[in-house]
């Protein structure tokens, strides 16, 4: 049994270090220190009850801004995304434990702005001209996320338990894209031949950390989680509270922080 647990922990450690040490990601030393400390602790706890969980669910993500008023720029909206996770839990007792989790998490935000204008007077009494323009965009930011967390479990009887987790999260940008649609309409009620309607759509790839007006390669914050386990199944709700400005340009007063609510279903393999 101990050999099996050590093997599972070792596999988790190797997978994690392979990812975080990949030269493509230029990982900061802090990430390696935290990862090594967390996994080393798990490797030393083989005589405790352990489990591996697999889960998947949905994210509802948006941006939270500092005191700057963003309404003058347009409306920012929430977007849906996917999250897929694997986590390794160790129980010190019936109530206290810890977890280290890895997740693929799709986050982002939506944006919409609209501008209308009109003027003049046509012989018919109608407005001589009018124009409207609208920009709609959706930004997708896909991350690999590490969550070392403390866990508290409240047994409810039988094979049912309520639990809560709390800990930091560290995210690394994998890829992203921005899809945008721009529409413009000009109506001339005097000379209709001048009417114009333009509808343009495009999509651009996001290179994390490489564009001065783009998004930072690293994202970190804290995550509270509540969950319910019934037999080998679990359901969890979590809320990522970003603590760093996700933009690469950090010189102006406009700061944007990640806020993501997620819910997932999963299955536990217990030992």
Characteristic key phrases:
271 residues, Porin, 8-stranded antiparallel β-barrel, 2 helices
Descriptive account of the structure:
- Helix content is 13%, strand content 62%.
- The protein is mainly beta and 271 residues long.
- The protein has one domain: Porin (Beta Barrel).
- The chain has an 8-stranded antiparallel barrel with strand order 1-3-4-5-6-8-9-10.
- The longest helix has 19 residues.
- The chain is elongated and about 85 Å long.
- The N and C termini lie close together (8 Å).
SSE blueprint and pairings:
Blueprint: H1 2-20, H2 29-43, E1 49-65, E2 75-77, E3 79-91, E4 96-121, E5 127-157, E6 160-188, E7 196-206, E8 218-230, E9 233-242, E10 256-270
Antiparallel strand pairs: 1-3, 1-10, 2-4, 3-4, 4-5, 5-6, 6-7, 6-8, 8-9, 9-10
Helix pairs in contact: 1-2
Count every helix, treating DSSP H or I runs of 4 or more residues as helices. 2
CATH architecture: Beta Barrel
List low-pLDDT spans. Answer: 1-7, 23-27
The outline comes out as elongated
Overall mean pLDDT: 80
The third-level CATH topology is Porin
Using DSSP, what is the number of strands?
10
- The CATH class, by name, is Mainly Beta
Rg from Cα: 24 Å
The separation of the N and C termini measures: 8 Å
Instruction: Count structural domains.
Output: 1
Task: List SSEs in N-to-C order.
Answer: HHEEEEEEEEEE
Write out the strand line-up for the largest beta sheet, numbering strands in chain order: 1-3-4-5-6-8-9-10
Overall helicity:
10-25%
Percent range for β-strand residues: over 45%
* Sheet with the most strands, sense and barrel status: 8 strands, antiparallel, barrel
> Which structural category fits the helices and strands?
mainly beta
């Amino acid at each position: 049994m101990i050999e099996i647990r050590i093997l599972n922990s070792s596999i988790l450690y190797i997978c994690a270090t392979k990812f975080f040490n990949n030269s493509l990601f230029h990982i900061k030393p802090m990430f390696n220190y935290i990862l090594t400390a967390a996994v080393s602790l798990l490797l030393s706890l083989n005589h405790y009850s352990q489990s591996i969980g697999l889960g998947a669910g949905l994210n509802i993500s948006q941006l939270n801004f500092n005191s700057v008023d963003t309404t003058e720029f347009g409306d920012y909206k929430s977007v849906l995304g996917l999250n897929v996770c694997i986590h390794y839990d160790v129980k010190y007792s019936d109530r206290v434990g810890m977890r280290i989790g890895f997740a693929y998490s799709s986050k982002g935000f939506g944006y919409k702005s609209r501008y209308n204008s009109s003027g003049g007077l046509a012989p018919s009494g109608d407005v001589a001209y009018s124009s409207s323009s609208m920009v709609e965009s959706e930004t997708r930011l896909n991350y690999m996320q590490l969550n070392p967390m403390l866990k508290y479990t409240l047994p409810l009887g039988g094979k049912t338990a309520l639990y809560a987790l709390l800990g930091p999260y560290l995210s690394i940008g994998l890829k992203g894209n921005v899809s945008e649609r721009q529409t413009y309409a000009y109506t001339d009620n005097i000379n209709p031949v001048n009417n114009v309607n333009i509808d343009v759509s495009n999509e651009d790839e996001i290179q994390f950390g490489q564009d001065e007006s783009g998004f930072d390669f690293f994202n970190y914050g804290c995550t509270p989680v509540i969950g319910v386990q019934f037999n080998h199944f679990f359901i969890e709700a979590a809320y990522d509270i970003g603590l760093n400005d996700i933009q690469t340009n950090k010189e102006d007063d406009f700061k944007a922080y990640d806020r993501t609510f997620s819910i997932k279903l999963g299955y536990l393999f217990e030992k």
